[in-house]
Amino acid sequence: FGYDPARPILKNINMKAERGQTVAIVGPTGSGKTSITLLAHRFYDVQEGAVLLGGKDVRDVTQESIGDIMGMVLQEPFLFSKSVYENVRYNTRAATREEVVRACKTIGAHDFVMRLADGYDTVLEQRGSNLSVGQRQLLSFARALVADPRILILDEATANIDSYTERIIQEALRRLLEGRTALVIAHRLSTIRDADKIIVVRDGEIFEEGTHDALLERKGLYAQLWSTNYGSFDDI
């Protein structure tokens, strides 16, 4: 695949996520990680090969039907100038207040929401600027939980938070991913060590693949980064 078909940026990509697995995709900026997830959601089509969801080519189904089973949580969650309640149920208009509160409690957002001036009826400022980065991310997780997608794509969901908030986010992530198939793009290696499979992408190709422990034993690029305590592929 290439945004310009004459200049492919992804080559020889052959990967599979089994139902219920968490598959992490790591690699330097520009290696093609986000492009893989965009193809899964069919924001673009491949030039050769195929992307399959449940055995079906994504080009043979509607994008709306893909959206019904697939959710995305991005590095910078987009929040609207509406109440917390309206923001959390944005993707699921039929969600009740009870379901929104339950999702926030599960994710760990309920306590900070209740400290806001009007609780769940508090109107957020533009893009949620009256909340911290971690609080905005927790609300985006609650939004995904209310939507209840079978497949979840997380794109750098812990990139902009401090180490203390990361621990809270990690627990929220664990609850969010239970029973779902997930593709997780990550820079921080510490956030994906428990993934069922880690795929290392470099220059548009799969460079290494395996569990955290298996990749350490292999003593390749992933192991080198881990052993030298680099927090991110971009640190090199």
Describe how the helices and strands are arranged.
Layout lengths: L21 E5 L6 H8 L11 E2 L2 E2 L5 H7 E4 L10 H5 L8 H11 L2 H6 L17 H15 L3 E5 L7 H15 L3 E5 L11 E6 L2 E6 L1 H7 L2 H7 L9
Parallel strand pairs: 1-6, 1-7, 4-5, 5-6
Antiparallel strand pairs: 2-3, 7-8
Polypeptide structure, described:
With 236 residues, this protein is α/β, with parallel strands linked by helices. The protein is 34% helix and 15% strand. It has nine helices and eight strands. The protein has helices at residues 33-40, 63-69, 84-88, 97-107, 110-115, 133-147, 163-177, 212-218, 221-227; strands spanning 22-26, 52-53, 56-57, 70-73, 151-155, 181-185, 197-202, 205-210. The strands form two sheets. The chain has a six-stranded mixed β-sheet with strand order 4-5-6-1-7-8, sandwiched between helices. The protein has a two-stranded antiparallel ribbon with strand order 2-3. A hairpin with a 2-residue loop joins strand 7 (197-202) and strand 8. Helix 4 packs across helix 6 and helix 6 packs parallel to helix 7. The two termini are 26 Å apart. The relative contact order is 0.18. The model has no long low-confidence stretch (mean pLDDT 86).
